[in-house]
Structures are given as structure tokens and as C-alpha cells.
Specification:
Structural class: alpha+beta
Helix content: 40-55%
Largest sheet: 4 strands, antiparallel
Order of helices and strands: HHEEEHHHEHHHHH
Number of helices: 10
Number of strands: 4
Length: 295
């Protein structure tokens, strides 16, 4: 029995050297940005090849996937002894386009905070739209795709398998999408920090926010050990961060550390212990308040 264009149905050669997909059933990824990549892929791909590609990915038929200049290069074990080579490239943005994107991102402090913490803001596509460009591919022409297999389709099952494994890579590292568009994580964050520094005031104003004069230090030295008038109105909520080590990630590498020193990894244990201690103290304090209230 022949398949389309004279090709016979065949089974891929099983391999134990493939990249094991984390997802074995159900949703393939966890984060919205990786799901958005899959949605973009599903919009331009043949459903049948997409389904076979998903099965390939879950069987571990993608034996290699590496970042290459301007995209990724992968090898997929198909029905022939020699794995097929798949190349995928996303059109990079020009420098002026990236400058416009970073300018749009810098206007929203919440976006900057998320990116510095290693997360992709839910509505980040608005920043790219404001710059007149797209973050995710909207059509097949947005992607340069090539596979060495004999399939006549532009997007075959081997390409689909690579796309799913690539989505898992996006799931773990959203900045991979930026790299495919031509900018590294460091370049994007440095651009945001530079804009923040440029927007910061040169010096503190004379007086407080209400315009009142600030008293001389000698006149208020005794107040150092007393609570301020507005302390009672301050509300705070102690909760575990949504992403690990958000403060370290927002600060970036310190200027005194060399390029080979991973400061976040070195301090990560101490920060995790401090977080656990603070949560325990907060929980105990809440319990005391609740007990006293019941009395």
C-alpha cells in the first residue's frame, strides 16, 4: 500500500540516544510563552504531520538540537539509518527594531520586573506590536525551515518533532525566543537597565514628596530609634516568590564578579534559607494573631 506521492508508510527506527520529552501525554508545555509557540506552529502546519511529529518527540526521535547561527539545527531519527537534518531560523529583528521594543518594554515597570526575574510577561507581545514587529511567527513565511527528508511538504513530521522539543526549550528558557530574534538575554536586560538609569533623577529633591522641608539631622537624631508616623499604615504581604531568586536576577551580575562566577548559584542556598525562615516567622506571627483574636 502506497502513501502520498508513492511513499510507503514506515516506522521510525527506535533509538535510546534521543532527547526525552518531559511530556508523555496531555499538554506539552507549562508556560504561556511556550504554548504560544505551539499555537503558532499549529496554525501553519498540517494536522496529520503535526500529530506524527508530536509522537516522534515523545518517543525521543529527536537525537540532537543545538542553537546555530540565527536559529537551531537538529537531527531526527526517521525510518532510514541516517538521521535527517532539520534547520529552523526565525527572522532576526534589526537593531532599530530592537531599540523600539526595548523602549516600549521600559515604559512598563511590571514588564521590566518580570524580565529581570527571568519570566516572560503575559502581554509582552504588546511591546513588540508597538514597535511594529512580531515576537512569535504569524505565518509559515516567518520561519525559514529545511529538512533533508524526501517529504514533499514544507513542514514535515521531522520539523514538527523539532518544534515540540524546541517548545520545551522555550518553556525552560523564554530568552531563547529573544536569541532567535537576534538579541541575547544579557543584551535585552542591559538595554532595559540603561534606560532605567537614564530615566532616574540626578539627585534627591529638597523636601519630601508633599513639599515640606526636611528637618536638619541634629533636630531629628532622637527619632532614629522611634517608629515613623506612617508606619502603622504600611501594609505588607509575605509570600514565596513566583520565580526563584527574583532579587538576584533583577540585580544582575555584580561588577566585581568575573565572567566565570555564577553569583546566583553561589548565593542561591542562602537566599532560599532566608526565604524559608521569613515564611516560617510570618506563619507563626499570623498564628499568634489568630489565637489572640479567638481569645
Amino acid at each position: 500500500m502506497s502513501d502520498w506521492w508513492g511513499f510507503r508508510p514506515s516506522r521510525p527506527i527506535a533509538t535510546d540516544a534521543g532527547i526525552a520529552a518531559r511530556s508523555k501525554r496531555g499538554a506539552f508545555v507549562r508556560h504561556w510563552w511556550a504554548s504560544r509557540w505551539i499555537e503558532a506552529m499549529e496554525h501553519v502546519m498540517d494536522p496529520g504531520r503535526l500529530q506524527r511529529g508530536r509522537a516522534y518527540a515523545r518517543k525521543g526521535q529527536v537525537v540532537a538540537l543545538d542553537e546555530a547561527r540565527g536559529g537551531v539545527e537538529a537531527r531526527v531519527q526517521g525510518s532510514r539509518p541516517r538521521p535527517y537534518t532539520v534547520r529552523l531560523a526565525l527572522a532576526p529583528l534589526a537593531a532599530r527594531q530592537w531599540d523600539a521594543v526595548i523602549a516600549a518594554l521600559a515604559e512598563r515597570p511590571a514588564w521590566v520586573a518580570d524580565l529581570l526575574a527571568g519570566a516572560m510577561p503575559d502581554d509582552i507581545e504588546q511591546a513588540f506590536e508597538a514597535a511594529g514587529v512580531a515576537l512569535f511567527p504569524n505565518a509559515a513565511d516567518d520561519l525559514e525551515i529545511d529538512c533533508s527528508c524526501p517529504d514533499w511538504a514544507d513542514v514535515c513530521k521531522h520539523v514538527a518533532a523539532v518544534q515540540y522539543i524546541l517548545a520545551e526549550r522555550f518553556d525552560a528558557d523564554p530568552f531563547l525566543l529573544f536569541r532567535l530574534r537576534g538579541r541575547s538575554k544579557a543584551e535585552v536586560l542591559d538595554g532595559l537597565r540603561a534606560r532605567q538609569a537614564a530615566a532616574a533623577p540626578d539627585g534627591a529633591p529638597d523636601g519630601d514628596e508633599a513639599g515640606a522641608a526636611v528637618p536638619a539631622l541634629d533636630d531629628c537624631a532622637e527619632d532614629y530609634w522611634r517608629a515613623g508616623r506612617g508606619l502603622g499604615a504600611v501594609e505588607s504581604t509575605i509570600a514565596a516568590p513566583a520565580l526563584p531568586l527574583p532579587v538576584l536576577k533583577r540585580l544582575g551580575p555584580p561588577p566585581f564578579a568575573d565572567a566565570d562566577t555564577d553569583v546566583a548559584r553561589l548565593l542561591g542556598g542562602a537566599y532560599a534559607a532566608a526565604t524559608a525562615w521569613a515564611l516560617a516567622v510570618s506563619a507563626a506571627a499570623d498564628g499568634e494573631v489568630g489565637t489572640r483574636g479567638e481569645e
